[in-house]
Amino acid sequence: KAGVTQTPRYLIKTRGQQVTLSCSPISGHRSVSWYQQTPGQGLQFLFEYFSETQRNKGNFPGRFSGRQFSNSRSEMNVSTLELGDSALYLCASSLGWVVGQENTEAFFGQGTRLTVV
Amino acid sequence: DQQVKQNSPSLSVQEGRISILNCDYTNSMFDYFLWYKKYPAEGPTFLISISSIKDKNEDGRFTVFLNKSAKHLSLHIVPSQPGDSAVYFCAAREGTSGTYKYIFGTGTRLKVLA
To answer: B78 to chain A nearest CA, in Å?
Structure first.
């Protein structure tokens, strides 16, 4: 069973540009979440999609957006890049929370390392 | 405001001894807690979890303890092995009505010395 696939693995962009990151979840998983990891900040939640709908959103500016397609693949877009957006962006997939079901752990991809110069 | 806190950024333990990683949280609505391990250049991998209705869950060398009154959980690794050297994140699930998100701590870097 293939794991979570994120592309590209590495990206260098210039301040002011925009970027799109892609995530293919584990087959059968309908929930996709995005996280930003920076040194000392842990994993900061960006948003979560389930069946093409954004169900939850973290405290990030509107420059960060995402979407999910009917095949559960998800994209994350960051517009007007700033130097502080340099980070590891992680995507996680899960079955989604089913009431009464305990094991809804998220499985992570290897991440996309974005560097803004 | 950090709802999930890992106050120790790093920890060094001798091989064969016990590693204890700690995590504190502030939100009493969290109902599910997880530990992830992360190696450099890889995404976090799920390690062990515990529901808020339990106080202990064990899986091989890994045991997670939950103290709800103190809003504290800990991960015990016994015996510690050099391959356990990694960054460990605790996470808490928050959500209602079928939608949820995970809140992560800032991580603790564990180094197991041979």
So the answer is: 23
